[in-house]
Amino acid sequence: MSKSLQAIRGMNDILPEQTPVWRYFEGTVSRLLDNYGYKQIRMPIVEFTELFKRSIGEVTDIVEKEMYTFDDRNGDSLTLRPEGTAACVRAVLEHGITGGGQVQKLWYIGPMFRHERPQKGRYRQFHQIGLEVFNLDGPDIDAELIIMTWRLWGELGIRDAVKLELNSLGTSESRGRYREALVEYLSAHHDKLDEDSQRRLKTNPLRVLDTKNADTQAVLVDAPKMADYLDDESRAHFEGLKSRLDAVGIPYVLNPKLVRGLDYYSKTVFEWVTDKLGAQGTVCAGGRYDGLVEQMGGKPTPGVGFAMGIERLVLLLETLEQIPEEISRQVDVYLCAFGEEAELAGLALAERVRDQLPNLRLQVNAGAGSFKSQFKKADKSGALYALILGDDEMAQQVVGFKPLRGQGEQQSIAWDALAAHLATCVVQG
Fold first, then answer.
1. Distance of alpha carbon 267 from the chain centroid
2. Which of 95, 112, 239, 319 sits most deeply, having the most CB atoms within 10 A of its CB?
3. What is the CA radius of gyration of the chain?
4. Which residues contact 207 (CB under 8 A, 6 or more apart)?
5. Residue 212, pLDDT score
6. Taking the model in full, what pTM does it have?
7. The dihedral of CA 419, 420, 422, 427: what is its sign?
8. 74 backbone φψ class: left, alpha, beta (φ>0; ψ -120 to 50)
9. 264 assigned binding-site residue
10. Tens digits of residue pLDDT in 191-209
11. Could you tell me if residue 40 is left (phi over 0), alpha (psi between -120 and 50 degrees) or otherwise beta?
12. 252 annotated as a binding-site residue
């Protein structure tokens, strides 16, 4: 017997009952970004593998263990994008839209791919909304990104469930000096480090700082601190960021162990974390990457950005029960028609109402059926009201109007007055 077809592990279907929450979240974010002057860019989901090796770093976990990489028919090595920043930088370089110091404030949305162990809130195909800003090098734009996310959490009703963590990684030069000091310290305690940290000590020692191993964390208590190695420029930049967040009233926690998992970060790094989702607590993260564009072949171009995980934020909204009631309702009004003549009149009436109320969610019964069966479908749809067209209504050119979610008697509404009546009732409902 042949094996039944199913989705790849860690790559999930988003079913019709789930998509309203996704659309609500995505719509809230896109409106907010429009209001702040950001423009959407759309990149392919497949890029040349070399792009991610050059940008993310060949000794990162993503490149070493997590990328979906394959050779195409031309023999080129291609990779499903594991993150969006590198692809966005490639796009702006290819099309020259950051040349001459042009400021670009961009955002994108779409699936990313990493071969990780699937668990709650973490999947092999996951979705992100990301922002990238080019040719602005001051702390003011870093602050704007964080302020936007703070406003978003407020609109979504989840501010009390998230916490902002901040750090500065300095310039590549100051980070290099810190790396040397950290390696020297950790090497002296090599036998006390967990196996993964011992490996990272040789390849990406800053990643040892965010280990979850308790024994290694104990070793790190007396390790050198990045703040002691910051150059004056990075220190001033970080103070400028903090003063702006203080001015707006956004609380934050300084986390000297926050380093992010990608090689290209410099100066500001930040994460929004929550303790409401178990171990997978980061819902939005980013920072500054002033050397990345040059590293990828462009002219020196400051950059800063972040990405937020849609799956985790949707899960957080559901966990905190912060989904507006009307989001789960996909139908406002359900029209029931009995008999062919009523069905034809109902179609015409529905289209006239849609002309007058383009935002009304009006569903017309399909498949005929008895009075009982149509009303059962109307109720199952979640509609607030049912419209009824039968022989009596046809003779009087009225439509029956019956509330389905609460008090109220059925009444008759003239066809010409229906749109105005629905506008009042649905808004009030």
1. 24
2. 112
3. 28
4. 61, 200, 259, 261
5. 82
6. 0.87
7. positive
8. alpha
9. yes
10. 888 888 888 888 778 888 8
11. beta
12. no
**CA nearest 85: which of 116, 117, 128, 28?**
128
What's the CA gap between 11 and 38, in Å, rounded? 30
**Would you state the pLDDT for residue 427?**
62
Given this model, what pLDDT does residue 54 score? Answer: 85
Q: How confident is the model at residue 417 (pLDDT cuts 50, 70, 90)?
A: very high
CB contact at 8 A, 242 and 252: yes
Q: Is 340 annotated as a binding residue?
A: no
**Domain ranges across the chain:** 18-170+230-320, 329-426
| Strand partners of residue 336 | 388
Closest among 339, 267, 357, 329 to 303, alpha carbons compared: 267
Look at residues 87, 80, 51 and name the one whose alpha carbon lies nearest to residue 66: 80
Is position 180 annotated in a ligand binding site? no
Is the pLDDT at 62 greater than 80, yes or no? no
Tell me how far CA of residue 404 lies from CA of 179, 312, 390, in angstroms. Answer: 66, 34, 18
The strand pairing partners of 51, in sequence order, are: none
C-alpha span between 309 and 174 (Å, rounded): 31
Instruction: Determine the 3-state secondary structure of 43 from DSSP.
Output: coil
Say how far apart CA 188 and CA 207 lie, in whole Å: 17
pLDDT tens digits, one per residue of 350-408: 999 999 999 999 999 999 899 999 999 999 998 999 999 999 999 999 999 999 987 78
* 79 annotated as a binding-site residue: no
Query: Are 122 and 315 spatial neighbours (Cβ–Cβ below 8 Å)?
Result: no
Is 184's pLDDT higher than 60?
yes
Intra-chain end-to-end CA distance of the chain, in Å: 53
Q: What is the CATH number of domain 18-170+230-320?
A: 3.30.930.10
Q: How far apart are CA 192 and CA 213, in angstroms?
A: 11
- The class of domain 329-426 in CATH terms is alpha beta
- pLDDT above 70 covers what percent of the chain? 96
Task: Confirm whether residue 144 is marked as ligand binding.
Answer: no
pLDDT digits (tens, 9 = 90+) for 14-31: 999 899 999 999 999 999
Q: Tell me the pLDDT band of 226, cut-offs 50, 70 and 90.
A: confident
Is 24 annotated for ligand binding?
A: no
d(CA 75, CA 73): 5
